Amino acid sequence: KELKSFIKTKKQLAMLLMESWKNKMGKLKYIDSLTPQRNEVYLFDTCILMYNFYTAGSYRKPLITKCNNLYTKIVKADAKILIYPELMQEFFNLFIKTEYQMYLKKHELKEENFQYKEFRRTSEFSDVVAELKGIYQLQIKPYAITTSSMADVDDIFNFLDFITEMDFNDMLLCKVAKANNAKLVSHDSDFILSSLVNSVDFYFAQS
């Protein structure tokens, strides 16, 4: 009886979560609906930055195309992309670490035999850094406005109240988007169910 009751409760919880998910999805705004206007501000999370600017990203082509189209519309409309130091650091790190994984695969190496610090001493690493600098200088900076995250230690502490919903970087995105009246764009499903996203103008990049 106890086992049957436990299974029944789990099924009920799963159904409630599924219903909540459906309701959220029905109310979502998607990037296809965006028509950027002059001086509007857009905040891309790290994944959207990767879909736009990581040149080896041939995966998820339909999603990449949608993100590229939005970026092009923003540039043509003279709207702005909002950036801040922590976001750029996360993007740069992910870009380089992804190239490190590509290097390992290409040369049939494993991390334990060829660590990241060794990759940093290769000519390929220098090429990646040069490419990343070019992307920032030519494709991001000319169309961006820069802000600080405005987060202090107390903010990070208070983020713990939402840690079951999303990670610290995502919470910081919500804070920065709200403070700068920016449209937040992400492909991360954590945003869909988080209560924090209700305070920002959020758009989901669907596949």
Query: What value does the Rg take, in angstroms?
Result: 20 Å
Structural class: alpha/beta
Order of helices and strands: HEHHEHHHEHHEHE
Task: Tell me the overall shape.
Answer: globular
Beta-strand percent range: 5-15%
**DSSP helix fraction:** 55-70%
Q: What count of helical segments does DSSP give? A: 9
| Major sheet description | 5 strands, parallel
Strands across the major sheet, in which order? 3-2-1-4-5
User: Unreliable segments (pLDDT under 50, ≥5 consecutive)?
Assistant: 14-23
Cα(first) to Cα(last) distance is 43 Å
Work out the number of β strands.
5
The average pLDDT value, as a whole number, equals 85
Short summary:
This protein is an alpha/beta fold and 207 residues long. The protein has helices at residues 2-27, 46-53, 61-77, 85-106, 116-119, 123-140, 153-158, 168-179, 190-193; strands spanning 41-44, 80-83, 144-146, 183-186, 201-204.
Task: Draw up the topology in text.
Elements: H1 2-27, E1 41-44, H2 46-53, H3 61-77, E2 80-83, H4 85-106, H5 116-119, H6 123-140, E3 144-146, H7 153-158, H8 168-179, E4 183-186, H9 190-193, E5 201-204
Parallel strand pairs: 1-2, 1-4, 2-3, 4-5
Helix pairs in contact: 2-4, 4-6
Question: How would you portray this structure in words?
Answer:
- The protein has 207 residues and is of the alpha/beta class.
- Helices cover 57% and strands 9% of the residues.
- It contains nine helices and five strands, in the order αβααβαααβααβαβ.
- The protein has helices at residues 2-27, 46-53, 61-77, 85-106, 116-119, 123-140, 153-158, 168-179, 190-193; strands at residues 41-44, 80-83, 144-146, 183-186, 201-204.
- The protein has a five-stranded parallel sheet.
- Helix 2 packs across helix 4 and helix 4 packs antiparallel against helix 6 (123-140).
- The longest helix has 26 residues, at 2-27.
- The N and C termini lie far apart (43 Å).
- Residues 14-23 have low confidence and may be disordered.
